[in-house]
Every structure is written in structure tokens, then in C-alpha cells.
Amino acid sequence: MSMLTLVALDVAVLVILLMLSVPLPYCFGGALAFMVLFGGASMTSMMMWAFNQSISLVLLASPLFILAGLLIAKSGIAKHLLNFIDVFVGRIKGGIGVVAIVTSGIVGAISGSGFTGVASTGPILIPRMVEQGYPRGYATALVTVSSVLGLLIPPSIIMIFYGWVTETSILAAFLATVGPGILIIILFSTINMVWTRRFPDIRLEDVIPDRRERYIHNAKRVVWALPGLMVPVIILGGIYGGVFTPTEAAAVAAIVAIPLGILLYKDLDKRAAGEVVRQAGTSIGSIMTMIIFTLMLSQTYVLLQVPQALIDILFGITTNRLVLLIIINLFLFLVGMIVNDVTGMILVAPLLLPLVIELGISPVHFAAIMGVNLAMGGVTPPYASILYLGMKIGKTEFHSILGPTLMFLLIGYLPVVFITTFWADLSLFLPRLFGLA
Amino acid sequence: MKSIADSALVRTIARIQQTVVFLLLVIIPVLVVIQVLLRYVLQMPLMGIEEIMLFPIIWLYLLGGSVASYERDHIQAGILALYIKKPRSLAIFYFIRTIISTVISLWLTYWAFEYFMYAMRIWKLSNLLYLPLFFGEAAMFVGLLLMTFFTIVELIDRYNAVGLARESNS
């Protein structure tokens, strides 16, 4: 059996296991078993390799950001951030949509994941938007697709994995997705403002008639939000000021979220904090075991020289850079639809990096290309974990959320994917500014 | 019918590992923050803390995975189950799925055991503090063994569910 047939069959095994709802660690474990049994990979050396990779302190950033994200989602920080942004745009028709989008970006700057955005802002914003006259499906779709920003605004868990598996500077990878992230904020906000005109029943919250009272009300909102706003400042300032590593920043975020939630915002008590830590343990275990087997599978592909074979095949089809980049984007889009962002990153980044380097694309630029593609996977079925969570929080059905989600993705997100791919400066401007690319 | 997952033995094992995972998840960020404080506030970084950390890290991952197996909370990507409407067909579907999971888990546990034996034989020490890495490497086997145990518990439950669905049909 040729190596490519073997890999094709292995991918088929993986897809079948995924379709059968086999838990993800076993899906990758099954695909790994296939490669060991038929490809001759050594399992003992794989185990040893996986152990050495798993104990990396760089990798530890991911579970710590999961913990931080869950604590932040329950701490009440998001509520005060929402109130803060509402002061500036809340009086404009459609302004609450902008509040959702910008807050997702700021929450992303604390948590590093897409789930935190929807889990922390969704329960507050979706009912508030519905109360103001927005269709439930639209409100849920907006909050859900916006939470993808958590994967693009640094620190980002998927960028930690990208930097780790490709040995690229994580700090540069973080900065590479900032430009695309800001562009998405602008496009989503514009689409929201235009689309909101279609909803005639929207009514804004009553204005406080007395000007002095209104100022005091708004000033209180700003003051209450300040500690929450300081968290991303501490995290990003710490990382780029050279004080923290991303792992340390994640630990600091987790530790800081507890007193903020318990003592200041009072949305969290000791029992709830304990429950969050317990939940985080399960989530971390579920994700990290999956990652360990994904790492092993990815390593078998690398050992069998699949990346080199991919280069040969694709260059055999065409040498046109534009066509190849479109093929890579389509491939990443499909990967994002089938597996989650982190596994997609670990599995695919080492395979594609040699190819894109041949195409003259820098690893930092490719970080942004992979980031925007795989982040979209969280809201594109069948594997659309962020979308499903949004539907659960927004208490809405798939058919209600599908239309607006597609609209945001097609008009707002997809153009950014292509701009990111074909305009390198969008991703490389900030890393260059910091001397990292 | 009472689920086997509710039996005293299963619950005790699960409770112990849940407690350990909880403690590890408290200890790890605290250790990381202490290291930051020692480095920047007291200007005296603690040598070797990274080596000490590898033990709680790997146990957190693998025991956490086992907790997820107990709570049946591993991430799944399948959509086929959404299209199966008949309760008995769904019960059979989940039973088959869990058989596959069990077989894969057993295979992985076998190799983790091989690695466990290898690690015990080699008895590698860490570079700085000369700590025996075996105590970290053992987590691979123990974690996978527990994952397999809870997957088998689920398999028994799924088998019983098929029987229950058949009875309710007839």
C-alpha cells in the first residue's frame, strides 16, 4: 500500500469515527491505531514523544486559559464590560449589536477562546436584544459569530498551539491575527447597523431624563468596568512587556478573575468558584487527552513524510500561487468543519507549513491564515461547537440562527479570510512593528 | 434500572480522581504565579520549579481525561445521532459507538502499559533536580486505564439501555 493511500484511508477512518460520535480522543486514537498497524509507526516511541511534548510549559497556557475563561465567564466581568460599551453606542439603533461585537473582542483579550465570549455575553445580551425587539435568531447569531473574535484577539489558544507545533514565535502569531480581528469587528458592526434597519420593532431603552443623573449613571458604569478592562491590559501588557510568558499570563488571568468575581463584582461565590474549577478540570482533561492523541497522529504523518508528499501532489496539479492559496483555504475551511480549532491546528499546521514556505509565505503570515480559517470552523456545521453553545444559550433552533449566521459569515467573515490570505501586510504589520517578523 | 455508574465502587474512584484533579488545578496556577512573583517582585527565581511542575501537569491532563470519561463529557463531533429518531435504534447506535471506543481505549492502554514498563526499566531522571520521571510517565498508563474502566462502565450501561429499549418496544 502506498503511503498516500494509507493516509487517505486513515483520514477516512478518522471521518467515520467522527461521524459515529465516537469521543474525539478515541477518534484520533483510532486513526493512530490504523497508522501503527498498517503504517508501521512505533507506538512506544510515540508514547515517549507525546509525554515529552505534553509536559511543555508552553502547552500549559492552553488549560490555564480554559480555566481563566470559565472563571471570567462566571465572574461578572462581561456584564460590566457590556454596560461600559453601552454608554458609548447604546443610544444608537443597532448599537447593542456593536456592544456584543466589541465586548466579544475584549473578552477575547482576556480568555483566548471562543467559548468564553458566547458563554459570558450570551446570557446577558441575547435576552436584552430580544427585549429591544431583535429576532432571537439574529441576536443569537450575532453574539455567537462575534465570539469567534476570542480566537483572533490575543492571547489566543489556537495561536499558542500554532507557535508550539511550528516553532514560530507565539508572540508574533498572537499579533498576526489582530489585523484580521479588527477588520472583522468593523465589518460585523457595519453589517449589523445596516441589517438592523430591517427590524422595525426595535426600541431603545428609556433615556434617563435628568442630564446630571444620566451622567452619574454612565460614570458609574465606566468606573465599574475599569477593573475588568485592566485585566486584558495586565495580560497583554505583561506578555508584550516581557514580564510574563503566555502561560504565566494565563495563570495570572485565572487567579485575578477569582477576587474580581467574588469580592468586586460578586457574581461568583466560593462554592460557584469551586464548581467552575471542577468543570474546568473535566474540560481540560477532555481537551488535553484529545490533544495528546492528535499530537501522536500528527507526528506519524510527519514521520511518514506526508508534508513532502503534499507539496509534490499540489505542485504537480499547479504551481500557480493564487490557485494553491485558494486550495489551502478551502482545505482549512473543510478541516474546520470537521474537527475543532485546536485539533485542526495541531494536525494540519505541521503538514502545510513546508508547502506555504515553498510558496514564499512566512510562518507568521500563515499563522493568521490558519487562525481565521480554523476560527470560522467553530460556527460552521457539522462540527460547530461555538454555534451549538450559542443556540443553547440563546434558546433558539438551528433554522432560526442559520440565515443570520450565514449572512455574517459570507458578507463579513469570508472577505476577511481572503484579505488575510492575499494581503500579508494586514497580518505582518504588527509583528514587524514589534520586531517579531 | 440503576446505572452501573452509580455503584459505590465507581463513584468512589470517580470522587477520588475528581478531588485530585481539583487540587492539581488549584496548585498549578498558584505555582506559576508564585514563580512570577519570585522572579519580578523578590528578584529570586526558584530554580527547578518547571521540573516539579511537569508532574502535576501530566497527571492533570490524564486524570482530567478520565474524569471526562466518567462524566461522559468528552467532545464528540458526530451528527448521525441527530437523524436517528427511534429510541431502540439510538440505543443500538450508542452501544456500537461505545464498543468502538472501548476497543480503541483498550489498545491505547496496552501501549501505555508497555510504555509504563519501559519507563520503570529505564528510570530516567530529570536534568536539574534528578527527579524520577517515572512518576510523571506513569500518568499515561494510569489515566488511560481509568479512561478504559469508565468506558467499559458506559458500555455496560449502553448494553442495558438496548435491552430496556427492546422491552419498551415489545
Tag the structure with descriptive keywords.
heterodimer, A: 437 residues, mainly alpha, 0% strand, globular, B: 170 residues, 4 helices, 75% helix
Subunit arrangement of the protein: heterodimer
- Average pLDDT of chain A: 90
How many β-strand runs of chain B?
0
Shape of chain A: globular
Please trace the helix and strand order of chain A, writing H or E for each element.
Answer: HHHHHHHHHHHHHHHHHHHHH
Question: Quick gist of this model?
Answer:
Chain A is mainly alpha-helical and 437 residues long. Chain A is built from 21 helices and no strands. Chain A has helices spanning 3-19, 24-39, 43-54, 61-75, 77-89, 95-111, 114-131, 136-146, 157-166, 170-176, 178-195, 211-240, 246-264, 270-303, 306-317, 321-338, 341-358, 363-377, 385-394, 398-422, 424-433.
How does this model look, in words?
The complex is a heterodimer of chains A (437) and B (170). Chain A is mostly helical. Chain A has helices spanning 3-19, 24-39, 43-54, 61-75, 77-89, 95-111, 114-131, 136-146, 157-166, 170-176, 178-195, 211-240, 246-264, 270-303, 306-317, 321-338, 341-358, 363-377, 385-394, 398-422, 424-433. Chain A is built from 21 helices and no strands. The longest helix of chain A is centred in the middle third of the chain and has 34 residues, at 270-303. Chain A is globular, with a radius of gyration of 22 Å. Chain A starts with a helix and ends with a helix. By secondary structure, chain B is mainly alpha-helical. Chain B is 75% helix and 0% strand. In chain B, helix 3 (87-122) packs antiparallel against helix 4 (134-169). Chains A and B meet through helix 1, helix 2, helix 3, helix 4 and helix 13 of A and helix 1, helix 2, helix 3 and helix 4 of B.
Explain the layout of strands and helices.
The complex is a heterodimer of chains A (437) and B (170).
Chain A: H1 3-19, H2 24-39, H3 43-54, H4 61-75, H5 77-89, H6 95-111, H7 114-131, H8 136-146, H9 157-166, H10 170-176, H11 178-195, H12 211-240, H13 246-264, H14 270-303, H15 306-317, H16 321-338, H17 341-358, H18 363-377, H19 385-394, H20 398-422, H21 424-433
Chain B: H1 8-40, H2 49-70, H3 87-122, H4 134-169
Helix pairs in contact in B: 1-2, 2-4, 3-4
